[in-house]
Amino acid sequence: MSTIRIHDEADLLDRAKRGDEGAYRKLIEPHRSELQAHCYRMLGSVHDAEDALQDAMLRVWRFLPRFEGRSSLRSWFYKIATNACLDALQKRPKRVLPIDYTDASPGDKPPGEPVVESVWIEPYPDAQIEDGYASPDARYERRESVELAFIAALQNLPATQRAVLILREVLGFSAAEVSESLETTVASVNSALQRARKAVDERLPEQSQQETLRSLGDEKLKDLVAKYVDAWERNDVEAVVSMLAEDAAITMPPLASWYSGHDGIRTWLGLSPLNGTFKWKHVLTHANGQPAFAAYHWDEALQVYTPFSLGVMSLRGDEVLEVDYFIVRTIDLPDERDFERWPDQETDAGRLARFFQSFGMPATITD
User: Fold this and answer.
1) Most buried residue, 146, 169, 271, 361, by CB count within 10 Å?
2) Strand locations in the chain, DSSP E?
3) What are the helix and strand counts (H, E) for the chain?
């Protein structure tokens, strides 16, 4: 995050209060990426986060003349962004991963239809997330706080508890600052934090993905992910299964169906994606602070590999614990109706390309 010197900030603030839009943009732009990540943690959706951030920026502009400097400008920005998210949460159901939505499917049962409601957690392009902690008082690392397991755990908290935990444990704001942001008491903040900690700790694995990745090291991690996608491209079911933990899971939002364990996943792989009918290519990337890969499927008519899904990998030691494949296109029907933008079921190829490009991935791959 870039910073503005104190006297420059004071000058910009004075000009922005008097209606200087350029000064306003210079004030808020250094905070945009961290505020967007905050909104994502609150809402579990990149699209919802961007909408909430836009709402918050409009509120900042509207109320800036009333800012009296009793808190830091950054703290005030977070107050407004948090309240924009709390307003958004009142208008829609919580977001989840398929594992929290329904039971695992038998391996011989094909995936069902997509769930068209916006109930799914979305992957997050984390290129602008910095390493380390947001402040000395933060409990969670910045990248740890966008991991899929952490985001899923947050979405199960009541909205106020979610806000308290993020503001206190991720961003390191004091209880007094949080109470002012949420217009409540310090005692209420501390009580909410205690309940939120307990609920989140019960859902999180013993080791975060950041700890796991550090224990593996860059080279071993690179080899592990490369081995997994190579097995997939060769349609080698047994090689894929050999890399999985016994209790591994594969999910495919916006499909509610998911598969669990060696037997269930082996059966499903052999009957569906790795049955030899489909040709796959993968490009490695990262999302949510985790290893990820864009999966492309060969389109015979176009003679190119087109986007199919973005897979986010969770590891336990050197075993694959979970892969969440966020599907952007199905491959069962030949017409344009089958071109589905995850999670909004749009048919706009340009939007699909931009989704992949937000993770640094090409729109298509030639053979």
Assistant:
1) 146
2) 244-251, 258-260, 280-287, 290-299, 304-316, 319-327
3) 14, 6
Neighbouring C-beta atoms of residue 15, cutoff 10 Å: 16
Q: Using DSSP bridges, classify how beta strands 319-327 and 244-251 pair: parallel, antiparallel or unpaired.
A: parallel
What beta strand segments (E) does 148-214 contain? none
Tokens of 139: 């409990």
Which residue ranges make up each domain of the chain? 1-92, 209-357
Identify any residues that bridge with 316 across adjacent strands, giving them in sequence order.
319
Whole-angstrom Cα distance, residue 166 to residue 255?
A: 29
Chain centroid to Cα 34, Å, comes to 14
* pLDDT for residue 343: 42
| Opening angle at CA 225, ends 303 and 144, nearest 5 | 115
Query: Burial, 33: exposed, middle or buried (Cβ in 10 Å; 0-12, 13-18, 19+)?
Result: middle
Give residue 339's pLDDT: 37
Residues of the chain with pLDDT under 70: 1-7, 116, 329-353
pLDDT at 353: 65
Nearest residue to 222 (alpha-carbon basis) of 318, 129, 294: 318
The letter for the amino acid at 10 is: A
Fold of 1-92: Rna Polymerase Sigma Factor; Chain: A (1.10.1740)
Angle at 350 between CA 344 and CA 351, to 5 degrees: 30
Q: Compute the residue count for the chain.
A: 367
* The domain over range 209-357 is classified in CATH as 3.10.450.50: yes
Unique residue bearing structure tokens 């409601």: 117
